[in-house]
Design brief:
Elements: E1 5-10, H1 15-28, E2 32-35, H2 44-51, E3 60-63, H3 66-73, E4 80-83, E5 89-90, E6 100-104, H4 113-116, E7 121-124, H5 136-151
Parallel strand pairs: 1-2, 1-6, 2-3, 4-6, 4-7, 5-7
Helix pairs in contact: 1-2, 1-5
Length: 160
């Protein structure tokens, strides 16, 4: 697995989005952190259905709470980067670093203010002004793709 990037899901609401991001983590080779409680029952049967046969290829670390996630990160010198519609920096102008942890919030509510305040950086994906937000799985994929591009982290053989 690629240690230079992680994706964290804060209390995901929708199993299909969690499964999509689990599949992204499996295909791109980075660990996925799930910060509970989830808005659905996370069990092998449901995750196999949502993540298809990619579950076996993903490194998933489940944390019982935000505090548990923060304890697991203690001592690491990795930036926590929150994707949010209230971000203060644009994704398209941001420079990722090895070790960054990209976090997305709940589909229904994002993250609470006290969680957002603990992020090192909050990024917004620029969009047309008349729309509200992207699907959380789409937003995470955009950010992860940009991070992998910048860090030279796409796996697999060269297409040339």
């Amino acid at each position: 697995m690629t240690a230079f990037l992680r994706l964290a899901l804060y209390q995901p609401d929708i199993p299909q989005n969690a499964g999509t991001l689990l599949r992204l983590a499996a295909c791109m080779g980075f660990p996925l952190d799930v910060i509970e409680p989830c808005g659905f029952l996370w069990d092998d049967k449901r995750m196999r259905r949502a993540g298809m046969d990619y579950v076996a290829h993903a490194e998933v670390c489940r944390h019982a709470s935000w505090a548990g996630f923060q304890r697991a990160r203690a001592g690491e010198n990795h930036r926590l980067i929150l994707l949010t519609t209230r971000g203060d920096q644009r994704l398209d102008g941001f420079s990722f670093r090895p070790g960054d942890v990209i976090m997305v919030g709940r589909e229904s509510a994002g993250v609470p203010d006290e969680v957002a305040a603990q992020a090192d950086i909050s990024l917004v994906i620029p969009m047309r002004p008349e729309v509200r937000s992207l699907n959380v799985a789409v937003a995470a994929t955009l950010a992860v793709g940009e991070a992998l591009r910048q860090l030279g982290g796409f796996p697999g053989k060269d297409c040339s």
